[in-house]
Amino acid sequence: MKFIRRSLEPVLTRAAREFPAVALTGPRQSGKTTLLRHLFGPTHLFVSFDLPDVRQAALTDPRGFLALHPPPVVLDEIQHVPDLLPYIREAIDRRRTRAGQFILTGSQNILVMERVAETLAGRVAPLHLLPLSRREAVGRPGAPLPWSARATPAARHPTLRALWQDLLRGAYPELVAHPRRDRHLWHASYVQTYLERDVRTLRQVGDLTQFQAFLRLLAARSGQLLDLSGLARDLGVAVNTAKAWLSVLEATYQVFVLRPFFANVGKRLVKTPKVYFTDVGTLCYLAGLREPTHAAAGPMGGAIFETAVVSEIFKAIVHQGEVPRLYFWRTATGVEVDLVVDRGTELVPIEITQSATPRPAMAAGIVRLRQDLGDRVGRGYVVHPGTIRLPLAPGVLALPFADL
């Protein structure tokens, strides 16, 4: 498989120069192993704990195992041997000032990062690798986000059909690198492997069949206000069970929760969060969508495109080594901005429309947000699947998805 450059590369190499250990987590098949072999193959040993005999050796004699595999070393799928972490700390502390000793990877956020953060506090840089962002898939991994002073328009814009083909396909590296591979079969295999290998190891899940039904129901509600009570009622399970299952999906990077933005503006705001799938291809597979025209014209077309835009920004920020501060804004009367990016110095409002013909009325929510919050709100964008860049209102620009 050809190597696809990742936005995280400079962040990862810098972290390995500054910290004794680096922990790289993300969903299965997101390219963690490929990236680490590319960056550290010439300098580090490589050990995978996916193999049962290797796991057993590490658990039986952890000090002996680390002596046979001395740093610098990449330890892949560390979640299989969490009891090895105290011995890794012991090895690090013998040479505390030496950077890049251990590169750890894992596929389950909660299982890995809680133990890593607790055991290797002050010694490890936590980073995350998600499926490809669009900028990575088209060979522009260093492209800045639109609100950066260095941002430039895309050189090419895909046709609407090509764009929807890409959305259906999703952004896992194997599918992007092999465009002729059957995407439906790949996603079917991925979901089944995910259920059998990742979900089984998490205590919150008992019935895998019911959990898979929960996954599909959640896909049908992507981008909507999250009604866990309604989901639980439809499945015939307790609300606490639905909450636990949602935490499983977050822990394994299948979804992320977008929370509402609050500001003291003297009005009622919606407090219910939204849920988005990290990979829009997974979303389309779970929703039973196979054809671009069906996906674009169907009832989920708007939700799919919104998921693509929100996940693109989410992945782009994560792959810069930062924690995304993303929200949506919605009043009790229904005035809404789909996405608000908190940059610290300003808020960047983003409205998302499936129409390739942006109109000034689409900027109404952003104009209202600026009226309520004033100078805190920076330049806004209406992101659409077409090719047009034009002002829609003062401080609001229509932006093609390809320029994102």
Radius of gyration over all CA atoms, rounded: 22 Å
- Poorly predicted spans: none
Query: How many strands in all?
Result: 13
Task: Tell me the strand order in the biggest sheet.
Answer: 7-6-8-9-10-11-13-12
Give the integer mean of the pLDDT values: 90
Helix-residue proportion: 40-55%
Order of helices and strands: HEHEHHEHEHEHHHHHHHEEHHHEEEHEEE
User: How many separate helices?
Assistant: 17
Query: What profile does the largest beta sheet have?
Result: 8 strands, mixed
Describe the SSE topology.
Layout lengths: L8 H10 L2 E5 L6 H9 L4 E4 L3 H9 L1 H7 L4 E4 L8 H10 L7 E5 L2 H11 L4 E5 L5 H4 L22 H10 L3 H5 L5 H16 L9 H13 L7 H8 L3 H13 L3 E6 L13 E4 L2 H7 L5 H6 L3 H18 L7 E5 L5 E7 L4 E6 L11 H10 L6 E5 L5 E4 L2 E5 L4
Parallel strand pairs: 1-4, 1-5, 2-3, 3-4, 6-8, 10-11, 11-13
Antiparallel strand pairs: 6-7, 8-9, 9-10, 12-13
What would the keywords be for this entry?
about 400 residues; alpha/beta; Rossmann fold; 2 domains; 8-stranded mixed sheet; 5-stranded parallel sheet; globular
Describe what this molecule looks like in 3D.
Helix content is about 40%, strand content about 15%. It has helices spanning about 10-20, 30-40, 50-60, 60-70, 85-95, 110-120, 135, 160-170, 175, 185-200, 210-220, 230-235, 240-250, 280-285, 290-295, 300-320, 365-375; strands at about 20-25, 45-50, 75, 100-105, 125-130, 255-260, 275, 325-330, 335-340, 345-350, 380-385, 390-395, 395-400. The protein contains 17 helices and 13 strands. Helix 3 packs across helix 4 (about 60-70), helix 8 crosses helix 14 and helix 12 (about 230-235) packs across helix 13 (about 240-250). It is globular, with a radius of gyration of 22 Å. The protein is of the alpha/beta class and about 400 residues long. It folds into two domains: about 10-130, 3-Layer(aba) Sandwich (Rossmann fold); about 135-404, no CATH class. The strands form two sheets. It has an eight-stranded mixed β-sheet with strand order 7-6-8-9-10-11-13-12, with helices on both faces. The chain has a five-stranded parallel β-sheet with strand order 2-3-4-1-5, with helices on both faces.
